[in-house]
# Entry
Amino acid sequence: MESNFLGKVISIAGGAGGLGRAITLLALGQGARVVVPYLREEEFASLERAAGDVQNQLAGFSTDVTDPAAAVKLVEQTLARFGRLDGLVNAVGGYAGGIALWKTDAATFNRMIDLNLRSAYALTHAAVPVLLAQKRGAIVNVSAKAAWDHAAGASAYAATKAAAIALMDSLAADLRGTGVRVNSILPSIIDTPANRQAMPDADFSQWPKPEDIAKVVLFLLSDEACVVHGASVPVFGNA
# Structure
């Protein structure tokens, strides 16, 4: 799979934190040139340091990917910097839980829509025309196990993650036969420092590692996954 990414350009939204960081570093290690939109400059600076010797393959642009106009600008910046776009990963997302629907305020609900659904719309809306013109490319959107396993106290989160799957499924149908592939992955709780801090009493050994999920994402982006289109892939192991 390593040779598949030599010279290819992958845009990884959310690529400076949590799962996205692992995807970015793996893609860089396999020869890809990676564009990461970010909101916090310190997170991108940390990612640059982690990239080490392949830092020259990494570009970052300050972008609010929930804003369709900003997402279009991101694609324009990517093309100006690298001249092409071969893949898109949307690892942007947020969680709000532990509260019943009738106690969930509108601001929280709208925030879940922005992070878990609007980001997917804005990024694909901007990137798909470029991929269609090239007649090739791959998109991977990060949804969640909660999209179909609807726990109490997580209505806004579960609803927006489910909607994101529907969005990608319909997009996959739109793109059938074009050479552009679209898939989703469905993680549960990922073993990240933020999740460990939020749930210090949990059994971390049962949580999937970001590096393991990143391998699945890179496979879905690769030419080796040429027959995988319109799938929602569970990546939560036995958790």
